[in-house]
Amino acid sequence: MPKHETGKHSESDLLHLVDNVNREEDVDYNRRSFLKAMFATGLTMSAATFPFSIHALTGKGKEALPQVKIADVKDVPRGGSVVFNYPDESQPAVLVHLSNGEYKAYNSKCTHLQCSVFWSQEQEKLVCPCHHGFFSVENGQPLAGPPKRELPLIELEIRNDAIYAIGRKVRHHA
């Protein structure tokens, strides 16, 4: 806006300042419009993922895994272990008979880079030799090394003096 020689705006110039306001454009780019758009986006995302949430909460779609005999109880002494595959031949697993008499089994692919994990009776830990990862045999949680996630737990059942794998739990709460 041009100024007069005095350096001030004339009264008619100030009256025409109102013409510089574009009401439509101002309404399009304000905080309220932004919040409305974010709320609509959130609502849309919630509606889109709702079926998946229900599916996960109800446990439907949980695959029925086979019940596979791993070994006879007499064949796994306390402190001993057995390597097997579960639920199919591509999934290596290890069964450990703990000193307290309990049996534990885990998928034996390291959660870091999928190297084979084995039972070390001397260290009383599950060991990944690739990067010196160690897992607790009690719960499959990583103890040291690069692994950050626990080993998937193989659910066991003992029937007629035989140990069966009956399911698998993938847990990520460490």
From TrEMBL:
Transmembrane segments: none annotated. The keyword Heme does not apply. It comes from the Bacteria. Keywords: 2Fe-2S, Disulfide bond, Iron, Iron-sulfur, Metal-binding. One of its GO terms (molecular function) is monooxygenase activity. Residues 68-165 form the Rieske domain. The keyword Transferase does not apply. Pfam families: Rieske. This is Rieske Fe-S protein. It comes from Aneurinibacillus migulanus.
